[in-house]
Amino acid sequence: MAKQARAIQTRRQILDAAGLVFDQLGYESATIAEIIAQAGVTKGALYFHFDSKEDVARAVLEEAVTTEGVVPQDSKLQECVDVGMVLAHRVPREPMLSAAIRLSTDLKARALFGTSWTPWIAFMAEQLALAKEQGELLPHTVPEETALVIVAAWTGMEIVTSDLKDGESLQHRVSRLYDHLLPSIAVPGVLARLDTSPDRGTRIWQAHQEQAGRDVETDKGVDLSMSA
Amino acid sequence: MAKQARAIQTRRQILDAAGLVFDQLGYESATIAEIIAQAGVTKGALYFHFDSKEDVARAVLEEAVTTEGVVPQDSKLQECVDVGMVLAHRVPREPMLSAAIRLSTDLKARALFGTSWTPWIAFMAEQLALAKEQGELLPHTVPEETALVIVAAWTGMEIVTSDLKDGESLQHRVSRLYDHLLPSIAVPGVLARLDTSPDRGTRIWQAHQEQAGRDVETDKGVDLSMSA
């Protein structure tokens, strides 16, 4: 493996491990030593890539939440659904992603890193504005307002689901959330054609993985995390 | 003041102070010393009422989230709206309430105290079941599922609002949330009559306060916090 490729892999390995540690212990209780042990890398390797625990957390927040896997659709509203459904598929499978959401709701981490909702809301608002231009949305819909509702409600669903541990998947919950939100914003003809089924995220993600297996470069999608 | 009344007042003073401290520092960083200083009570007074920081936090979680102020309505769906709107009015004004929500999303506190969503979801589900019996809901609506969507989305709104600090009130956001959710569950005739205006919670709460000024005993409503 080329030196650079190996460095990228090690960096990713550290971020995945940090995700697990932050997710289990919270930001404050997590230590660099634990991240090193979890990642199975040397102290030197970690400090080659990151200066501090804060630096690792910042990278998790900056790089975890993406639109990776989501492919352009004729219906921009379907794309908004797809972003939420693919993330719902990925969160329970990617500790780094679930840690990023945990850090976004953690008081201490929020004080250090600021809010991480803005880019995600802005992205959704853009998609909704395009959907509105295409006549997919009811006339009273305000893209910025609806974007905030979707992102906030999605986040609440993730928190409550990870808390209840009642066996129902985040994908089922997010599917139901969209079914509750979309009738107030979509024109009837579009609404009837939207796919909000619970396995939508899994199907999209699997197609993306197959595509990635064939391609040299994978499209990581738009970064929805901290833009700073 | 009677001895008992004074003890109740001191206890409440400690919980309010604890709310402020937990809200500002998070559960882990908060100390008993800080709660005592904030409450302006003696160490003895605090330990008369509570055994430990954990014990104080448990009381905050158990007693903060209530339906206080919400009055029975002909429309049970309106009552569901009112619960969310009154809480949206109270949260920025009651540190204990805002701390309870913060503790419910705090990893460390959650590990110690368990989930606090269940009673809130169960209460909403009951109200929605009554609304359905009365023919207020569309036939496909499942009270338990919709209850979870409302509670989770409300929580997400609170987190994102307290995080964004962009000057828009939680009441405006929760009002908009209901406007996004209700068309998918209410029959048209009921939907048109529901009051989801941003100042709904304030109006209800003020009427309740005036009532409380006249009465000796105030109805604290149903406890929506931890039932354990």
From TrEMBL, chains A, B:
Keyword terms: DNA-binding, Transcription, Transcription regulation
SUPFAM superfamilies, alphabetized: Homeodomain-like (SSF46689), Tetracyclin repressor-like, C-terminal domain (SSF48498)
Chain intervals with Basic and acidic residues compositional bias: 211-222
Gene3D superfamilies listed in its UniProt record: Tetracycline Repressor, domain 2
GO molecular-function term, one example from the UniProt record: transcription cis-regulatory region binding
Domain HTH tetR-type stretches: 8-68
InterPro entries according to UniProt: ArpA-like, DNA-bd_HTH_TetR-type_CS, Homeodomain-like_sf, HTH-type_TetR-like_transc_reg, HTH_TetR, Tet_transcr_reg_TetR-rel_C_sf
Ranges annotated as DNA-binding: 31-50
Keyword check for Lipid biosynthesis: no
Pfam families: TetR_N (PF00440)
Protein's UniProt keywords contain Glycoprotein: no
Superkingdom to which the source organism belongs: Bacteria
Region (Disordered): 209-228
Xref: PANTHER family: HTH-TYPE TRANSCRIPTIONAL REGULATOR BETI, HTH-TYPE TRANSCRIPTIONAL REGULATOR RUTR
Protein name, entry field: TetR family transcriptional regulator
